[in-house]
Amino acid sequence: MFDVIIAGCGPTGAMLAAELRLHDVRVLVLEKETEPTSFVRIVGLHIRSLELMAMRGLLDRLLQHGRQRPAAGFFAAIPKPAPKGLDSAYAYLLGIKQPTIERLLEEHATELGAQVRRGCAVAGFEQDDEGVTVELADGEQLRSRYLVGCDGARSTVRKRLGVGFPGEPSRNDTLMGEMKVGVPQEEIAAKVTEISGTHQRFWLRPFGEGVYSVVVPAAGVSDRAEPPTLEDFQQELRTIAGTDFGVHSPRWMSRFGDATRLAERYRVGRVLLAGDAAHIHPPTGGQGLNLGVQDAVNLGWKLAAQIRGWAPETLLDTYHAERHPVAEDVLDNTRAQMELHSPEPGPQAVRRLLTELMDFDEVNRHLIEKITAIGIRYDFGAGPDLLGRRLRDIDVKQGNLYGLLHRGRGLLLDRTERLTLGGWSDRVDYLADPTAALDVPCVLLRPDGHVAWIGDDQQDLDDQLSRWFGKPAD
Ligand SMILES: Cc1cc2nc3c(=O)[nH]c(=O)nc-3n(C[C@H](O)[C@H](O)[C@H](O)COP(=O)(O)OP(=O)(O)OC[C@H]3O[C@@H](n4cnc5c(N)ncnc54)[C@H](O)[C@@H]3O)c2cc1C
Description:
The protein is of the alpha+beta class. It has helices at 11-21, 47-55, 59-63, 98-111, 156-161, 185-196, 230-241, 288-308, 318-340, 345-357, 361-371, 458-469; strands at residues 2-7, 27-31, 42-45, 67-70, 92-97, 115-118, 122-127, 132-136, 141-149, 167-168, 174-180, 203-208, 211-217, 248-256, 260-262, 267-268, 271-273, 279-280, 395-396, 399-400, 410-414, 428-432, 442-445, 451-455.
């Protein structure tokens, strides 16, 4: 009997497993693939994800494997510099290979004690009042108290759960892969310059050792899970460029669409959804992996609280209440970005207008805060603007704030030095007189770094501790 079974060891599943292990939850991750993914897709980790990695002590490991780039040019790839003074200690983009992120997150989860079983596909499940019986493709049955589907866009868990996944189907598929070419680099560069001005989904970029990263629009759309063939690449390259550049010896080949869909519910009883299993959208702006990792950090401590027995009754449902609107907003901004990528005259005129508007710092800042997820404010009720937002990393007497959040516990920052945690001190840490940089008397942070309360009154604090952290221990 496990506490939680997670279907899928992609970035979302691995991050969730680690978050649960911070609270000693018995976690099993079931991954259908026998080997880690080999698709060398370079993805961007945005500011909020970098902050979360810093909050869990993972950022230094990631920085060793990626390249820092300016936090700019994300929205529909409109080339504008980052606004000045972005409110974060980690105001950059980290370009890093997705397999590297997955490896590091899986290592982190297993170091914390999560079990990962590869070559195990979840085929179905039944839930009852006490738990979930999970059935694997080979017929084996496993039992857990909760099941979380982190099994990607074609999620078996979501389908078996019967949760609706409304939205728009893919209108355009794109082929993507790495392969060798048979013509000189200059010839390729000239063609790419000529064509990529009008086609956003076309490029050939040298990847080292004569290998190119190739992206080309596919003819039609396909719901096939199988990768495309080399012949598919050759044909589409000839269609768009008049030559197939002599491509051969592919390392890997893949296809992705631009469907936009959002699960109607993130939780049904003891089964939950996170990451691409809950939401899909085109990759423009580079938000999908970030969104999934952030789902995991929002869900982890709440599910752990439920299992440890101290969760207030409605805590687990705040996962849907908080994260569903965030995904809705991401889906909308990718819809808008996709329109701005259209070569049609109308969208191109809107693109030019938005490009002008982005010269206004507030417009540029709004868009960057949206894409990088530092603009998120959860609805915790009426209160100061900081309530419901994440607190940026700040210097405190003991070092930096995020360094105090590695264990995934709540944190009370008390400048008054008068407040006490009482029976909540087994779940929440206390820091007296943290820093003059904090311009409010006291702040209660949730384990995900969001501000749950601001004030200076003990009774108010106790009410909010109950709201987020349940009944105090005796
Ligand atoms: C071209 C491209 C570029 C992208 N660029 C970016 C970017 O720059 N930034 C960004 O944030 N995002 C980007 N994304 C999106 C990102 O890759 C995904 O959002 C991310 O991989 C989602 O992570 P996940 O863990 O939720 O799902 P997945 O990565 O899909 O992982 C799901 C896992 O579940 C496993 N699985 C599936 N079914 C089962 C089953 N039945 N049982 C057990 N295991 C199962 C799969 O094998 C897989 O390992 C890009 C996507 C594409 C296509």
